[in-house]
Amino acid sequence: MISVVIIGSGNIAQHLFSVFSKQSLVKVKQVVSRNSKALSFFNSKTRITTDFTNIEEADVYIIAVNDDAIATVSQYLKNKKGIVTHTSGSVAMQSIKNNGNRGVFYPLQTFTKGQEISFKEIPICIEAEKEDSKRVLKELASLISNSVYNVSSSERKALHLAAVFVNNFTNHLYSIGAEICREANLSFDLLKPLITETANKAALIDPKNAQTGPAKRKDYKTMDAHLELLKNEKNKDIYALLSDAIKNKYGKEL
């Protein structure tokens, strides 16, 4: 049995609590957060507290708070014997201020409150200062995921940057596409099969080989027509910037 205390009450904290609660070999002993309203999600399911000076002993502490707060929160755990981890993709393990038993427990996925997700398919990136601690984190991660990786802080920082491109930036482009559809009185549903196929191809073959479209073909007539259609100047800039990047990337091959 691995005992866990979760510090935080947001998206990741709620999702981790839900998946850990389904495991017979994991016991979430406590959830700690200053947000008493958000703690209501955990009420009656485990012990909760807003008092950071009253954190229980556990094998693993998972700090699931905003990146800027990780170092401050970790100060409350500096005398704990358990492994103190955070869930951030961009913060170094060394930002945790404790007695040297530090680690990282980073689920590489986008989380939304109320949106269920299968952890079995989520890569969990772990890191630890001590080999014994790394084994514990690997055991904990393996209980909820089929994909567990040892990833250093520098590697995780690069991975998080890549994730911003394939998730956050891509989703913003979806938002622009939805806006264009609304302006033309079209349903965004028309684009959903294309979104699915594009994601599937990127997963099955190298994204470079999956690239299509007017910029790769150097179809200037179509690109000029698209720029004329765009009313939002920022969206025009994005279209031109991405088109130039694609043209430059594939220019030598055409």
Distance between the termini: 59 Å
Helix/strand class: alpha/beta
Strand order of the largest sheet: 3-2-1-4-5-6-7-8
Q: Which CATH-level-2 architecture of the largest domain?
A: 3-Layer(aba) Sandwich
Please count the helical segments.
9
Largest sheet: 8 strands, mixed
CATH level 3 topology of the largest domain: Rossmann fold
CATH class of the largest domain: Alpha Beta
Shape: elongated
Q: What integer is the average pLDDT?
A: 92
Proportion in β-strands? 15-25%
- Rg computed from alpha carbons, rounded to a whole number of angstroms: 22 Å
Instruction: Spell out the CATH superfamily of the largest domain.
Output: NAD(P)-binding Rossmann-like Domain
Total domain units = 2
| Number of strand segments | 8
Low-confidence spans: pLDDT under 50, at least 5 residues? Answer: none
Overview of this protein structure:
- Strands 3-2-1-4-5-6-7-8 form an eight-stranded mixed sheet.
- The termini are far apart.
- The chain contains nine helices and eight strands.
- The protein folds into two domains: 2-151, Rossmann fold; 157-253, N-(1-d-carboxylethyl)-l-norvaline Dehydrogenase, domain 2.
- Helix content is 43%, strand content 16%.
- The protein has 254 residues and is of the alpha/beta class.
- The radius of gyration is 22 Å and the shape is elongated.
